[in-house]
Each structure stands twice: as structure tokens, then as C-alpha cells.
Amino acid sequence: MTSSSLAHIIQGIPKTELHLHIEGSFEPELMFEIANRNNIALDYDSIESLKKAYKFNNLQEFLDIYYTGAQVLIHEQDFFDLTWAYLTKVHSQNVVHVEVFFDPQTHTDRGIEFDVVIKGIYRALEKAKAELNITYKLIMSYLRHLSEEEAFKTLESSVPFKEWIDGVGLDSSEMGNPPSKFINVFKASADHGYKLVAHAGEEGPSDYIWEALDLLNVERIDHGNRCLNDEKLVQRLLDENIALTLCPLSNLELKVIQKMEDHPLVEMLDKGILATIHSDDPAYFGGYMNENYYETAKALNLTKDHLMQLAINGFKASWLSSDEKEKHIEKVKSYFNLMN
Ligand code: ADE
Ligand code: ZN
What's the CA gap between 149 and 196, in Å, rounded? Predict the structure, then answer.
């Protein structure tokens, strides 16, 4: 496959994004625009100098910059613009279903009300559903570097907006903040009807993946790269068909892997794990869905069958209804069949 035919094939695949932090889609251009209209001075004097700072040796170095960037988001319109920019971008890449994370505490800790955040995000998601035919789910993530008590406050704030929120997740600094810290708030979230996912095994050990499954009862693991050094865990993922939402460009930029050729994606697919690929924080890691497909395909010599499997896995792992999943999967299959 030539590079341009690979890019062309990837563009045409109907795709789903299941691991995307909306604050991580904040492009420098939009950040400057919103900072200006809110009269906030950024620490960088130009878009270029901001982009130059996007060099990370680990997750924490990234998070420090990511939380700083989010500070310019003040008004409902800012959250709308952020979300709408992401949705129009992925629409251009033939992404047809998204499950989007937002981090309420990144904003409520700065005095921005929960309702300001969620109303802006929700309005953009609804507009995309109506105008771009993109379906969506919304996932509220608890910041794991904060306490469980603070997560409980966030859960309480979310209750009036329960109809808009499909699930809860767990993100931020993984090392030293195991899933076990959040047992009670995950139980309470499930009691409110929220579905459960958690970041685990990104930088942290496979033990954290076990904890997310056994103690938090999550149905999907975000990242989960570290599962492969634990055979029993792999068997568990297979037995229960638990999806791993992998983010190859993120892994590369955060030095979870040293080079793309080292990514465990193919080994996972070969073992039959329900592995999917996503962009995590595309404005910071150099690519959206297409670029994540493209870079992994190039480095790992993915075949058309791999690409089809990845796209199908995305829909299987999503929270769409069985009927909707079936329809999307049929479209993926016929796209690849037409090519042969
Ligand atoms: N928040 C945004 N991106 C994240 C990541 N890759 N891991 C943990 N928390 C995050
Ligand atoms: Zn993530």
C-alpha cells in the first residue's frame, strides 16, 4: 500500500472515537482566540512558542500543560466552541460516533460552575447530532490526583444533569493514585445509573487494571497497555470481552512507548483482545483519529483486515445499542468488501 492509498482508505472508514478528553482537543489557535476575548494572558507570546512547549517525558509533564491551557475556558460559549471545533474536525475524518470525556474538576476548582461547563459541551454535541449526524455519549471523569471526597462533590453536582451524562471515568496522574482510592464514588455513580470506565495501565502497573475491574467494576479500560505482562489478566479481558481504548500517538508522546514500532496493538489483536484506537488529547499529541490509524498502520504494517477489525472493535466497544452497532459494523464491512 502506498502512503496516499493508506491515507485514503483510512479516511473512508466509518470510525468511532471512544477515548477523547475534550480539554485535550484545545488547539493552540483556539486557545489564543478564547484567551484574548477573555482578557487572559497566556505564558507564551505566540502559537509557535506554545507549540514548542509540547514536549513531554511522561504523563505528568503533559498534564501540567493541559490543565494550564484549560484555564482560559470561562464561559459556556468557550466550552461550546471547544467542543464544536472537535466535532467538526472529526466529522471531516468520517468519525460517526463519539464518546467524549470531560473533566469537571479542572474547571470547578477554578470557580467555574459545573452547569457552565456541561451546558456548553452538551449544546455542541446536540448540534453535531442534528447537523453532522454524529451520535455521542458523554463521560464525566474524576481527577484521580484529587480525593474521593472531591469526586463525591462532583457526582452531586452532576445529578441535575444526569440525563445528559452516560458514564463516569477516572483520569489524571495514575502513579500513586490507584483505582482502589475511588471504590465508594464509583459504587455511588453506578447507583445513579452511570456506566463505568477508568484509565488504568497507562503508566501504572497491571495491578491497577485488576483493581479497575475488580474494585470499580468498570466495563472498559482506557489504555491498559500494561496488561500484556500478565497472562491471567489477558485471559480475564478475553473471557469478559473487555475493551481497551488504546491511544498510540499519546503513548508515543508520553514515552509510554519509545517508538511506534513497539506499540502492543498487534499483539493484543492477535490474542483476540477487543482493542480499539483513539486520539486521547489530539491537540497535544499531533493527531486525531486518522493520524492515529495512519501512524500505527505504517509502523506496525497493519493489513486491511487489521484496519477493518479496529473499526469494528470500536463499534463493538461503544455504548451504542446492539441495533446501532450492527448497522455501523455492516457499513464498515461493506466499505472493505467494495475495495476488494
Ligand atoms: N487526562 C487527559 N489525558 C490523559 C491521559 N492520557 N491519561 C490520564 N489522564 C488524562
Ligand atoms: Zn485518556
Answer: 18
